[in-house]
Amino acid sequence: MSLLAVPDRALVTVSGEPAVAFLQALITTDLELLAADEVRPGALLTPQGKILFDFLISRTDSGLRLETDADQAQALLKRLTLYKLRAPITLSLDADTDVAVSFEPVEGALRDVRFATSGAPIFRIYGVKGVDDVEGRLDAARIAAGIAVSGADYALQDAFPHDILLDKNGGLSFRKGCYVGQEVVSRMQHRGTARRRVVTVEGVSDLPASGTAITAGGKAIGTLGSVAGHTGLAIVRIDKVGEALARGTDILAGDVKVALALPAWTGLAFPVPLPDATPETSEAGA
User: CB of 260 within 8 A of CB of 268?
Assistant: First the structure.
């Protein structure tokens, strides 16, 4: 099978003996769980717990590699440099190394934990040129698996890790020590206040453009993200979806009737409101 090119990506490398300890105290991913043959999702958060940078992280012979969008790589490098202080590590930016993916294991490729968790394995390989994904196979696979990415599905500094399921796909730790924003996301976890989640969207016809509001009963409950024909992703208030389903209210993306589903691999379900309960209006955790 041909390797598919992943365009507009860049690599930020952290090299040196303390590289793991340095990043372990900053990012959401538990690096003690990161195997040599895989990439895991992760994020660097704001102190308020929102995603400032997102990336895929993997090991190298001399440290760690963070793969991210090319347009945020320089800013990520600058932010890590602020945290570096006198740590004996080397930070560098590589915007030239090719990134490719395969739907089958190939020599030198790393298992993408996000897709492995969803049950549809995909493998990532660095330094090998792939062919253009003219058929959009990778995006189709990502949408089917319920995997959100910044830009297409959410804006940086506007989403919590729970919103994009990092707590379910190996990208968010509640067991390691402190990291930036950890207190906020831990509180959301233990209080169960994470109400916005990624869902898959299936329309009765082609979906409208990314950014279109998802509505129920004329009220916005989320926003459409990635779109591929009749299918797409959205981040929605799952409590509001539960209320709409309980009432039999149509859910729309623009003027297209849609069905929403939480990815099966998450184990999540839309909350079912109690009979005669007053619908919540609080936006806490949104």
Answer: no
The residues near 282 (Cβ < 8 Å, ≥ 6 apart) are: none
Taking CA atoms, 144 is separated from 87, 115, 232, 256, in Å, by 42, 10, 8, 19
Q: Are 42 and 29 in contact (CB under 8 A)?
A: yes
State the amino acid at position 89 in one-letter form.
I
Of 62, 140, 61, 70, nearest to 101 by C-alpha is 140
For 180, the token pair is: 């930036």
Mapped onto helix, strand or coil, the DSSP state of residue 121 is coil
Query: In angstroms, how far is the first alpha carbon of the chain from the final one?
Result: 42
Could you tell me the two tokens for 234? Answer: 């959205």
**Sign of the dihedral through C-alpha 117, 149, 168, 33:** positive
What does the alpha-carbon distance between residue 202 and residue 87 come to, in Å, rounded to a whole number? 49
Reading the block at residue 23, the tokens are: 């990043």
283 band by pLDDT with thresholds 50, 70 and 90 = very low
Whether residue 281 is predicted with pLDDT greater than 90 in this model: the reply is no
Question: Which pTM value belongs to this model?
Answer: 0.92
- Quick check: 77 and 11 in contact, CB under 8 A? no
Q: What 3 state SS string does 48-89 have?
A: CCCEEEEEEEEECCCEEEEEEEHHHHHHHHHHHHHHHCCCCC
**pLDDT value of residue 2:** 83
Containing 44, the helix (H) or strand (E) segment is strand 38-45
CA-to-CA dists, residue 10 to 57, 68, 75, 98, 283, angstroms? 12, 6, 12, 8, 36
* H-run or E-run covering 22: helix 19-24
Token pair for residue 126?
């660095």
Tokens standing for residue 249: 């209210």
CA-angle at 167, arms to 106 and 202, nearest 5°: 75
